[in-house]
Every structure is written in C-alpha cells, then in structure tokens.
Specification:
The protein contains 15 helices and eleven strands. It is α/β, with parallel strands linked by helices and 351 residues long. The strands form two sheets. Strands 3, 4, 5, 6, 7, 8, 9, 10 and 11 form a nine-stranded parallel beta sheet that branches. A two-stranded antiparallel ribbon has the order 1-2. A hairpin with a 2-residue loop joins strand 1 and strand 2. It starts with 5 loop residues before the first helix and ends in a 9-residue tail after the last helix. The mean pLDDT is 92.
Length: 351
C-alpha cells in the first residue's frame, strides 16, 4: 500500500514555487538527450498537464551560433510550463544562450552540471563543474543577471566517492542565484550504476532554503513516495523511468494530489502509445524520426508474450508504415487473446 505521511502530503499538494514561477505540480520530467523532443513531450504532457517539462540539453555555443536552435524553436504553447536546459563552461556564452531560450518561451533556465558523458565533461560542461565550483558559481551568477526568469541547476552528489561535495556545492549555487536545485543521487563516476544515494539529497535539502528536487531511481509511484519520505525533498524528477513509459510523471503527480494510484496501462495501452509516438516522430522529423523511433520502440515493447521478436523487428523498421503494421498486428493479437479468455468458444454438447 502506497501512502505519504499527512504532513508531507499537505506540503506536496501545494504548488511548487521556483522563484517567481509557480508550477501546479511537484513532479518534473527530466531533460534527456535524444529523448525529450517535441514528440515525447507531447505524450508526457497528456498524462501530466501541470508538470514542468524540459527540452533536451542544448550546448550554449551551438545555440549562440544557431546550430542547435531547432531544439528549442519547436516549442508549442501547449507544452507550457517548459524549461530549457543549457550546458557550457563559459558564462558569457551561457548568458547569451539563456536570453535566446527565454525569447523562445522558456519559463526557467536550467543549467546542466550533472551530465557524466565524456564528450560533455571534456569540454568543461556537465558534471565536470563539480570540480570547478568557482566556474559554476560564475555561470549561475552571470545567467541569473542576464534573464528575467528563474535560473535552476541540475547536478550530482560529487565527482566520485572520494570527492562528494554535494552540500557545499549546492550552497554555492544558491548563493550565486539559483532558485531551485535538482540533485541526482549518484556521483559522476557511478554514471547510472548502483543505487541512487538519497541520503545525500536529504542533507542538501536540510542545507538549502530554495526548493530541492530529488532525482535518481524514481521509476514508480512507490519509489517516488519512498524517496520523498526519506529526503523531505520538494518534489521529484523522473528520468530513465519514463523511457518507453511517458505515463510515469502523470501517475506520480496524480497520486500526490489525490492519494490514489491510477490504473497501470496495459500492454495494449503501451503499444498504442508506441504507435502514436512513432507517428509523431515521423510527422516532426521525417526519416530521421523513423530511425530515432527504433530505440523508443524497444523501450515500449516488453512484458508480454511475443515481445522479444516484435522488439527485434521494430528495431529494424525503415518506414512508418512498417512500424504501424507490426504494432497493429501485435495489438490485434493481444486483443484476440483477451477475447478468447473472456469469451471462450462454446463446444457442442455444452449448450
């Protein structure tokens, strides 16, 4: 049975204040590179109408030179509230990129100081800033002075087990002007391996006066509740738990607001969602979208008989029609199997 303590329940049912921006949900959809594009966000928004959504991470230099402008140009009014996440190590480029992001509709500017990927950290961005707190402070201070919307930070608990500096780093970000901090409970060295250490999130929450959002291992309503109880965080951010499952943010949000866990989607529901996702990627990106859809289809298709061979075939599609045919066939098979159980044939002699 999933439940929250009465005190925590009352607090989490109130809006989330990020500086001057008020969000009517305590559950956020994490920015995910190659995932949280317009197609994916459209599906998340359907099930989580009030949650803050995030674009894919955008490099400030690329945005300033218009090379990555397409990542934020396709923001639709129906996606609000939405934040644009930026990364770089140069405060001036970050400030210029932040101004462009606000012009495109960003309600907040999120600064990535947690990405563990080598190609990001080697350029001085992402989690490498955990080892350069003075640079991180300068970035936040410069961006906060450049835009009228709140500036937030997403980071990790430290570079590795020997250099966990979550509390000191978080305090520095707050002092520099950050108005919310999202903390992933792993070090950069961990990547996405091993359990998220929520105890560090609790320590950071106790040290700050701005909202602290918990991130890491938020894969279900039950996990979100355990994390919120353990950390006292002001909300949760869902990341990898939403891969092939855009229902998650809405499920957690609904529980925090009503105390009731929504019915879980059936395999048929998931396949129908996969079909729609495929169509949206085709509509927005053409053939490039079909190729990107392959990984999404692999995430959706699991947990039912025949999932493995279907997944293998979907990972090879080259046209939207081929994907539709495979998904429609699987949906029909599942519907027929359900009908056979609910309405078994009447044999002669049984009448």
């Amino acid at each position: 049975m999933v439940s929250l303590s009465p005190t925590l329940q009352r607090r989490l049912r109130s809006p989330l204040a990020i500086g001057a921006v008020t969000v009517q949900s305590r559950v956020l959809q994490s920015p995910l590179s190659g995932v949280t594009d317009r197609a994916f966000r459209q599906l998340v928004r359907r099930y989580a109408p009030a949650s803050m959504l995030y674009t894919e991470m955008v490099q400030a230099t690329g945005l300033c030179h218009a090379q990555q402008l397409e990542k934020i140009m396709d923001i639709d009014a129906s996606e609000q509230p939405i934040s644009i996440q930026l990364f770089d190590c140069r405060p001036d480029f970050m400030a210029a990129a932040a101004r462009k992001a606000v012009a495109e509709g960003a309600k907040t500017i999120d600064i990535n100081m947690g990405c563990p990927v080598n190609k990001i950290t080697k350029k001085g961005g992402g989690s490498s800033l955990l080892r350069q707190p003075e640079v991180a402070e300068a970035i936040v201070r410069t961006v906060a002075a450049a835009v009228s919307v709140p500036v937030t930070v997403k980071t990790r608990i430290g570079w590795d087990d020997d250099h966990i500096n979550a509390v000191d780093f978080a305090r520095r970000m707050e002092a520099a002007g950050a108005q919310m901090l999202t903390l992933h409970g792993r070090t950069r060295a961990q990547g996405y391996h091993g359990p998220a250490r929520w105890d560090w999130i609790a320590q950071v929450k106790a040290a700050l006066s701005i909202p602290v959002i918990a991130n890491g291992d938020i894969v279900s309503v039950e996990a979100a509740v355990r994390c919120l109880e353990q950390t006292g965080a002001d909300g949760v951010m869902c990341s990898r738990g939403t891969l092939g499952y855009p229902f998650l943010v809405g499920e957690i949000d609904a529980f925090l607001k009503t105390g009731t866990v929504p019915p879980a989607p059936t395999p048929i529901d998931k396949l129908r969602c996969a079909r729609e996702h495929l169509g949206l990627l085709w509509r927005y990106k053409g053939q490039k979208g079909i190729h990107q859809a392959r990984k999404h289809m692999a995430w959706y298709v699991k947990g039912f008989e025949g999932a493995a061979p279907l997944r293998q075939r979907l990972c090879q599609i080259d046209t939207v029609e081929a994907g539709y045919a495979l998904l429609d066939g699987a949906i029909a098979e599942l519907e027929n199997a359900i009908a056979a159980v609910e309405y078994p044939p009447v044999l002669v002699g049984q009448m």
